[in-house]
């Protein structure tokens, strides 16, 4: 159960959670099952060569997909689109071959963060509305002598 990798995504982005089988070789998809899950929550399920999403957790509905063209070569990665804060979790990629009952599992942690907010500078008309002696300026002025004094004291202390 140790983590194989950690992925990072911002809300609204598309992220690919990597999962590959080793050694790489032709996988018989018609005799394979692939589960992507968080604890007991089903994120994506693939069996008998196709997606089987009846039991998929509602919050992932329409947002997950596999790389079907690359699966037979061992790429079992899961693509999640429009990532949400609630998607932040540890995902298990569980691949099972039905004929020889071989099971491979890997764990991928997805860290989701809110997108960085881009602050736009106030337009000139908004700047004019704040009177020049506004209380907003006072804390800055009050802090300046204090920090200057600390710098001086630290400077002397180092001598």
From TrEMBL:
Region: Disordered, residue numbers? 113-132
Q: Where is the Ig-like domain?
A: 12-109
Q: Listed GO cellular component terms?
A: external side of plasma membrane
Q: Which domain of life is it from?
A: Eukaryota
Please cite one Gene Ontology biological process associated with this protein: regulation of T cell activation
Keyword Aminoacyl-tRNA synthetase among UniProt keywords: no
Q: Which SUPFAM superfamilies match?
A: Immunoglobulin
Could you tell me where this protein is found in the cell?
Membrane
Q: List keywords of the entry alphabetically.
A: Disulfide bond, Glycoprotein, Immunoglobulin domain, Membrane, Signal, Transmembrane, Transmembrane helix
Keyword NADP tagged: no
Q: Which residues form a coiled coil?
A: none
Q: Can you provide one Gene Ontology molecular function annotated for this UniProt record?
A: signaling receptor binding
**SMART domains listed in its UniProt record:** IG
TM stretches of this protein: 138-157
Q: Name one Pfam family in it.
A: V-set
Q: Which PANTHER family match?
A: BUTYROPHILIN, SELECTION AND UPKEEP OF INTRAEPITHELIAL T-CELLS PROTEIN 10-RELATED
What is the official name of this protein in its record?
A: VTCN1 inhibitor
Please name the source species.
Panurus biarmicus (Bearded tit)
Gene behind this protein = Vtcn1_1
